[in-house]
Amino acid sequence: MPDMKTIASIAPYHGGGLGQHLSYVVEEARAAGRLSHYFAKSIKPGDEAVATPVRSRWMPLLARYTPLRWSPGGLNHTENELFDRAVAGQLRRPIGGPIDTFLGFGGTALRCFKQARKLGAKRLELLAANSHVNNVARLHAQAIARYPLETSWLNEAQRQKTLAEYEMADVILIASDYSMRIFIENGVSERKLLRVHYPMDPRFTPRTTKAQNDGVFRIVYCGSMTAVKGVPDLIEAFTRFRSRDAELRLVGGTGSRGMNHYMQEAMARDPRIKMAPGDPLPHFRAADVYVHPSYEDNLAYAACEAIQSGVPAIVTADTGAKEFLREGETGWVVPTGDWKALLERLEHVAQLSR
Length: 354
Fold this sequence. Notes:
This protein has 354 residues and is of the alpha/beta class.
């Protein structure tokens, strides 16, 4: 009988980057006949026999009525802790049979790891959604020092918990060579690291017709609009872009009052900047270039999906997606946190696409 795997992720099944990681590891285990059970914020329809949705009834109240609403780091750590406790508690029950391998996601797995070990788990796997947490803390601090609009989702308690998970894990799943290098530089043994190649959604394919031929140079970004994602760097570069008629589409939403105020002011000053929540694919179809200015991204699905859609991409040096482009052909890499370098590259691409 194969070793059976139990999986836990705070993400919804196939929702966002984390959810795409979750769906990959779930379906890989299922295809191998190794899926015992999985826990997630929401599950795949029809998976009720092998999956348990886990939602905290307290989080909406904590996020709305307590001081945590002013602390992204405190809110994130609390939500992760509640999830970790809830799943660890359910592991005590015979859900799905014995646990041979337990796979948890970084920052949400320490209590589950300890409980799985007590229940005889032979292997503990940690899926790292980011590069090494010390690198995340350093780069987030750099972004927020430059743009003090909000605070990081990573606080010290979360950093310490994640370090403890690294220590306890038998295997850490890594999504990019960039993250692999960062983990090794931070003292994690290469023998503990497993490079995983996540597939992209097949609906992202190159367009079969030309983008709008109206002379407007269209720049697209998709993701959270935060300081640590480098959105202010993109705004700083774009507001100085005058080489051609242009438009900047930001697909996503803000997560803080500070960032929302910053975006509203930016759009008021420059009507070429537009926010467009929803499916990114139609925006990729219309784009001349995709920009991912993040200060740290283990992978960055959106950038990879843009490249897969045939859109050239500009990404930062601290983004794993840089491995998915061919420099000068399907994209370019710019220094992290350097809006001047980003502006120069945008001007170069604008001339190429005339």
